[in-house]
Amino acid sequence: MKIAHVTATFPPYWAGTGNVAYHNARLLHERGHEVVVFTASTPRDAEMQFPFEVRRLPAVFRIGNAPLTPGLVSALRGFDAIHLHYPFIFGAELTALAARRYRIPLMITYHNDLLAGGARGLIFRAYTATSQPLVLRQADLLLGTSRDYAEHSFFSSTTPRGANFAVLPNGVDVQQFLPGTRSGERYALLVGGLDSAHHFKGVRVLIEAVSRLPDARAVIVGDGDLRGEYEALAARIAPGRVRFAGRVPPAELARLYGEATVGVLPSTTQGEAFGMVLIEAMAAGAPVIASNLPGVRTVVEHGRDGLLVEPGDVDGLTRALATLLGDPGQAREMGARGRAKVHRLYDWNVIASTLEGLYAQVTA
């Protein structure tokens, strides 16, 4: 099949939606399909090469991660299927228009709600109430990373009754993330964007929790416009105990996961819908601590392969960190169970077979 993937973000901007689009495209390419990824052009386009075609369209303007690329409609002509990674303000509307104009089957993966505070939050709510139902109505098949998130997000109120829906979880490369030596420093690892678009990642919550445990250490991977604020907070309340690694290459990221005592995702809002970093940590044999949020909680079995804490609960996160950082034996047992679960449910090769079947279904 000739398949188009449309996404607002894509590597080298490493964020959840772009990561999923990349792996979906890679797996389909490896199975012999002709895959083209459409995304917006950025100053970092030359940093990476891909085995499949990536068309980076010029944006006449952008608002955060919402670029307007008018050339998208004509570029989507001639495909057997279009796969839109949602949300994509501007791009979603253009993709739905192209699918309807050229009569191409449209699949939409609903990754997460659009959430923010202040004026941006008002704009997002207006967009969700007006444009989102029109876009989702055009889909021949809607995909969600979990039924739990679909039922507790704006997806449920903006999707037409009786819409064709299937669950397709995010995945992980189980050969990339492997258990490493854990005989050295015990630390909690947080991986995420440190920019305003990912303000909900709970970085402040982790720093405050670490500050309450004199022996606790944390490593934070990621970069963005909020990094300076986070570094200043850590220097003030947990001096010398939080290391900001910035952006790291894949091999270094895999090493950090493999040596981490625990992976942490302390997100504060439903802007988090799944948490790929959880299954990356679990693949590397680390137990996880995650916020008890719809979608996220489907990945973690509390007390078996990780612990759940309430969003924004510094005391709860502090207790969870004390439990796993203070008991390496329990952490190893939880990590082993998590790795077995990832191999069974979240290996990209397992998910690729499901995805390929869904394309066959929707094009038939």
Automatic annotation (TrEMBL):
Source organism of the structure: Deinococcus aquiradiocola
Pfam families: Glyco_trans_1_4, Glyco_transf_4
GO MF terms, alphabetically ordered: hexosyltransferase activity
Segments traversing the membrane: none
CDD domains for the chain: GT4_PimA-like
Taxonomic lineage: Bacteria, Thermotogati, Deinococcota, Deinococci, Deinococcales
Segments forming domain Glycosyltransferase subfamily 4-like N-terminal: 16-175
Protein name: LPS biosynthesis rfbu related protein
Superkingdom as given in the UniProt entry: Bacteria
SUPFAM superfamilies to which the protein is assigned, alphabetical: UDP-Glycosyltransferase/glycogen phosphorylase
Entries under InterPro entries matching the protein: Glyco_trans_4-like_N (IPR028098), Glycosyltransferase_grp1 (IPR050194)
Residues in the signal sequence: none
Record Gene3D superfamilies: Glycogen Phosphorylase B
